[in-house]
Amino acid sequence: MKVKRIILSVIVGLLIGTTELFANEITETLELHSQALDMIWLVLAASLVFFMQAGFAMMETGLTRAKNANNIIMKNLMDFSAGALAYWAVGWAIMYGASASGIIGTDQFFLKATDNTVFRDWMFQVVFAATAATIVSGAMAERTKFSSYLVYSIFVSALIYPISGHWIWNSDGWLTGIGFYDFAGSTVVHSVGGWIALAGAILLGARRGKYFEINGKKETRAIPGHNMPLAALGVFILWFGWYGFNAGSTLSGTDPGIGAIAVTTTLAASAGAVMSMVISWIWFKKPDPSMSLNGALAGLVAITAGCAVVTPTGSILIGLIAGILVVISVEVIDKVFHVDDPVGAVSVHGVCGAWGTLAVGFFANTGNIKGLFYGGGFSQLGIQAIGIFSIFVWAFGGGMLLFFIIKKTIGLRVTEKEELQGLDIGEHGSEAYAGFQIFTTQ
Amino acid sequence: MKLIIAYIQPHKLNDIKQELFKTGVTKMSVTNALGCGQQMGYHESYRGVDIEVNLLKKVRIEIGINETFVEPTVEAIIRGARTGNIGDGKIFVTNLEQCIRIRSGETGNTAIG
After folding, report:
1. In 3D, which of A241, A101, A255 has the Cα closest to residue A185?
2. Residue A25, helix vs strand vs coil
3. Which positions ≥6 away from A344 have C-beta within 8 Å?
4. For residue B2, with 0-12 CB atoms within 10 Å meaning exposed, 13-18 middle and 19 or more buried, which class applies?
5. Residue B44 forms beta bridges with which residues?
6. Is residue A189 in a domain?
C-alpha cells in the first residue's frame, strides 16, 4: 500500500516536473524565435531604407541638368559612405549612448559593442542618418564644391543629426521626456535634412541664370531637369524603401502593427500624389509630372511621424494636406523668397516633415496618445509644436553655422566658369553621358 | 541680302538673343556645333586614363538679313557675346543669293524681313 503510494507520488511528481520543463522550453523557444524575427525584420528593413539612397540619387539626377549628373551620384554615394564611417565613430554614440541630461550621448564611441542586438540597431539607424544627410544634396545641387559637400556629410552624420536624434529617439532624450512623438522620423530625419538643406541653399545662393531682373523686379526662370523617367524611378524606389522606413520602425518583427503601418504609408503617399496633381492641374493648367512626384514624397514624409497611431482615414487626410503644402511651399520658396532648391527638398522634407509631426497632435488615435480630433485636447498638439520648433532652431541654426564656416574656409561654391561648363568636368573630370552631345545654353 | 553666321559660347545665347531683340532682329536659326579655335581644349579622365577634349561645345546662329541691317546685327551679337576672353567666338558674313518664303512664294527682300 505504502509502496504503491510512493510510486504514484513519484510518477505524479515526475509528470508535473516534465510539464514545467516543457513549458520553460516553449517559452525559451518562443523567445528565440521572436529575437530571430526582430533580427531578420530589422536588417531587411535597414536594407530597404538603404535602397532609398538609390532613390535620392536617381531623383536628384533626373531633376537636374545632364552636365551635373556625375556630381550628383558622387554626392549621394559619398554622403552615405563618409556618413556611415562618421556615424560609426561618433554619431551612434552621441545619439544612443548613455544620456547626459537628455541632451547628448556619451558612450559607445567607435561602436564598442559585442552584442548582436547593438549591431542590428546600428545597422537600422545608420541608414536613417544617411537619409537625413542625403536630403541636402538635392537642394544644393549643380553649384556646390564637392570637397565642401564631403566636409558637410561628415559633420551632419557625426553631430547635427545625432544630437537632435538623441533628443527624440534616445529613451532619455529631453523631447521624449516631455512626450514628443515621432514614430519613424518626420522630424528626426526629414525635417532635420530639410532645414539643413534650407540653410545650405540660402548661403550658397541660386544657380546662375535661375533668377533675373526685369524692371527692378526679380523673376524666376525654370531650369528643367534632364531626365524625368529617372526622377520617377527615383521616387518609386523611395516609396518602396519607405516600407522599410516606416514599418521597420516597429523595431520588432512580431509587432502586429506592421500591416497597419504599411497601409497608412501607402494611403498617405497616394493621397499626396493625387492632391499635388490636382493642385498643379488647377494652378498650372496641366497635371505636372515632377510636382506630382514631389507630392507622393510629401505624403510619405508627412505620414512618417504618425504612421503607427493614425487611422487609414487620418493618413489620407495627412497625405492630402501634404500634397497641397508641397506645391504651395515650392512656389513660395522659389517665387517669393527666391531660394533656389532644384528638387524641392526643403518643401518635401522640411515643410511636410513639420506638418506630419504636427499632424500627430490632430490625428493620433491610440490608447496612449490621442490627438485633438479624437478628444485628446491640445496638449499633444502643443508638445508636437515645441518639438518641431526646437528641431527647426537646432537644424537650421546648426546648418547655417556649419555652411558659414565651410564658406569662410574652403569655400562653398564652384567658380562661374565651372558652373557653366558643368560640375562633372570641373569637379570630377569626366562626363556622365559620354558619346552623347549634351548642350546647355544656360 | 547677307547671311550672318556666328559661332558663340553656348551660355551667351540668351544675352545675344536679348541684344538682337532690342535691335529689332527677331528671326534666327540656332544649332549646336562642335568646334576648335584659339581656346584649345581641356582634359577629362576616365578611370585614370587621360582624355583630351579639343572640340568644344559651341552654338551656331544663322541670320538671313537685308544689307542695311548687317551692321546693327553684328554689333548686337558682339554686345551679347563679348567677354574679352579667348573663346568668345567668330562672326562670318556672306552674300546670300536668294530667299524664298515657302508659304507665299515671295522672294528676295520681302521674303527675308
Report:
1. A241
2. helix
3. A138, A294, A326, A330
4. middle
5. B51
6. yes
Pick from A101, A94, A99, A104: nearest CA to A129: A94
A48-70: pLDDT as tens digits: 999 999 999 999 999 999 999 99
The CATH number linked to B28 is 3.30.70.120
Task: State which amino acid sits at residue A129.
Answer: A
Structural domain count of chain A: 1
Nearest CA in chain B to A436: B57
Contact A425 B10 (CB under 8 A): no
> Between residues 185 and 224 of chain A, which touch chain B (CB distance below 8 Å)?
209
B14 contacts A209? CB cut-off 8 A:
yes
Range of the domain at B85: 2-112
Work out the minimum CA distance from A183 to partner chain B, whole angstroms: 44
Under 8 Å CB pairs connecting chains A and B tally to 29
- Which three-class secondary structure state does DSSP give residue A254? coil
The answer to whether residue A104 is domain-embedded is: yes
Determine the residue type at A210: K
Terminal CA-CA length for chain A? 107
What's the gap in Å between the CA of B113 and the closest CA on chain A? 26
Answer yes or no: are the C-beta atoms of B80 and B19 closer than 8 Å: yes
The pLDDT of residue B48:
83
User: Looking at beta carbons, which residues of chain A come within 8 Å of B11?
Assistant: 209, 420, 440-442
Tens digit of each residue's pLDDT (9 = 90 or more) over B27-86? 999 999 998 888 888 888 888 888 888 888 899 999 999 999 999 999 999 999 999 999
Tell me the chain B residues in contact with residue A434 when contact means C-beta distances shorter than 8 Å: 46
The Cα–Cα gap between A17 and A26 comes to 14
Record the pTM.
Answer: 0.90
